[in-house]
Structure formats: structure tokens, C-alpha cells
Amino acid sequence: MSPILSVGMERWPIAGAFVISRGARTEATVVVATISDGADIGRGECVPYARYGETVEGVVAAIEAVAPAIAAGMDRATLMAEMPPGAARNAIDCALWDLEAKRTGVSVAARLGLSLPHPLVTAYTLSLGTPESMEAAARIAAERPLLKVKLGGAGDIERIAAVRRGAPTARIVVDANEAWSTADFDAHMRACRDAGVELIEQPLPAGHDDWLASAKRLVPVCADESLHVASDLDELAGRYDAINVKLDKTGGLTEALELVAAARAHGFAVMVGCMVGTSLAMAPAVLLAQEADFVDLDGPLLLARDREPGLLYRGSLVSPPEPALWG
């Protein structure tokens, strides 16, 4: 039987609200690609992201358009060549990996040479808010070993200090989501250094970050919105110390593996991150993140409920996926 590609949209409520510099959300809208050959089924989940010009409807349509090629036997290499990076390609690529594992009985972990993938400590995200609300949130999460703090520009010096007061022993990374400017960069950088922040994600807007090459980076700086695929790395050299690899940006696990290898060759530290989605979206990223310097795969922890079966989280420790979920 020829493989049949189908696609569906799902809405998952967020516990409270997820707030960053670009706005707030109370639910995660995900798109799931399913590929069936009549005997086995592979699945992949993606999260369309408006920041990159994506809509749910557009991603669904892009996946549906590939159905004839999948039926004709399109493999992952051809998918990479013929479809641009982004959420739609991610869902199909991950579904193909899952289907291959189900067909062959050889797990994705084994195919990647991960004989014993291990649990990982993931960051836990604190949404953007007032210094007072963020200090309160930090106190609740203070026992988690690694916190990721969303920032928003004005008021960030106070926010950084407040989170450190609330979680005096936690490791901290911060994510400005492009909200800083060259005018406030040095002051924000000093506040991060003084609070013991280990990494700063995307302080300046993508496309306007040349200035970082001459900036005094008191804390390592990580590219997120400025980075999508391996071919972006040459341009980022000298501006950034680390990169954030997300499957929805790379367009799947296949490209993400190449990106991580290329990043290491360029001397970048690596974070493996995520959009807010369910365990199905996190599962391939957990395998990708086995040797990452920073792991930010807390999407299901931010939801009011997760799909079942899902990944096993023990506090901030996330275990590799079981075959019933993915891979």
C-alpha cells in the first residue's frame, strides 16, 4: 500500500498564560502529520509560528500539498531538497522518522547511535511579567535546577534581580525575544552578569544584530530568531557564542542533526529548544539534545494537560520517548 499522508490541527490549553515580549497565549495550536502505510503509522507534530510568517492554515495546506509525493515514495532527503524549512516540513520529516522506526523495528535512537539515551535536565520557563510577579513565580520554581526567564526590554534589570531573589540557587538563562536595543544592551548585560545568568538568548532583533560582533559580551549570547538552518552559521560567527536549535525552525530532525554537527565545527555552544507543544513535538528533540549544552524542552510542563502516552517528566528531568509515543 502506498503511504498516505494526513494532517490535523489540535488545540491544547496552557496552564495559565504563556507571555513573551511579543504577546500572550492561553493555548497551544499544533499541527500533526500522520503517515500510514496500512500496517504502521508515523506521526510528527509542529507548531506554526507567526513570527516566521506561518499560519495554521498555511502549514496545513503545505503538508497536504506533499501528500502525492509521499504516496509516490518521497524520502527524507528528497523532502529536505524540495520543501523549505519550517513547521510543515518538521511535521512530515518527524513522521517519516517515526514510520521508519515502526516499519523496521529499529528505534530512531538506535539509528542515531544512541544505544542508551539518557534523561535530560530541561529548563523551566518563567513568563514575562512584572518584577513582583516574576519573583513570586521564581519562588515557586526555585527548586528546579535551570530556569529560563522571558524578558521584554524596559524593566528587565528589575526583572532579572527579582528572579534571582526568588530563586537564589537555580541556574538561569534569559530570553529577550529580540526586545533589547543597542542603547540598553550594556546595562542589561551587566545586570545579567551580576545575577549569575549563564546565557542570553536573542537580545537584538534578527537582521539587526551585526552590532553584536563589536559588543562586549559579559555573558554568552545565543542566536534564536537569527538562526534556522546550517547555512546561517557563517553569518553568525563572531556575533553569537551559542545557537538555539528548534525543529520547527530547521524543518525537522534531519536538518537539525546537520545543524548541530555544523555548529560544533564552528565552535558554537548548543541549546536544543522548543515551541509550546505536546510531548509528540518534544520526543525527537530529546534525542537531538543528548549532548546539548542547554536543554529547553519544557513545552508539556507549560500545558494544562499533555497527550497520552507522553514523555515522562520527573520535575525538570525528561526521559527519552517510548515507542508508543514516537520513534
TrEMBL record:
<dbReference type="InterPro" id="IPR029065">
    <property type="entry name" value="Enolase_C-like"/>
</dbReference>
<dbReference type="InterPro" id="IPR034603">
    <property type="entry name" value="Dipeptide_epimerase"/>
</dbReference>
<dbReference type="InterPro" id="IPR029017">
    <property type="entry name" value="Enolase-like_N"/>
</dbReference>
<keyword id="KW-0460">Magnesium</keyword>
<dbReference type="Pfam" id="PF13378">
    <property type="entry name" value="MR_MLE_C"/>
</dbReference>
<dbReference type="InterPro" id="IPR034593">
    <property type="entry name" value="DgoD-like"/>
</dbReference>
<dbReference type="InterPro" id="IPR013342">
    <property type="entry name" value="Mandelate_racemase_C"/>
</dbReference>
<dbReference type="Pfam" id="PF02746">
    <property type="entry name" value="MR_MLE_N"/>
</dbReference>
<feature type="domain" description="Mandelate racemase/muconate lactonizing enzyme C-terminal">
    <location>
        <begin position="131"/>
        <end position="222"/>
    </location>
</feature>
<protein>
    <recommendedName>
        <fullName>Dipeptide epimerase</fullName>
        <ecNumber>5.1.1.-</ecNumber>
    </recommendedName>
</protein>
<keyword id="KW-0479">Metal-binding</keyword>
<dbReference type="InterPro" id="IPR013341">
    <property type="entry name" value="Mandelate_racemase_N_dom"/>
</dbReference>
<comment type="similarity">
    <text>Belongs to the mandelate racemase/muconate lactonizing enzyme family.</text>
</comment>
<dbReference type="InterPro" id="IPR036849">
    <property type="entry name" value="Enolase-like_C_sf"/>
</dbReference>
<keyword id="KW-0413">Isomerase</keyword>
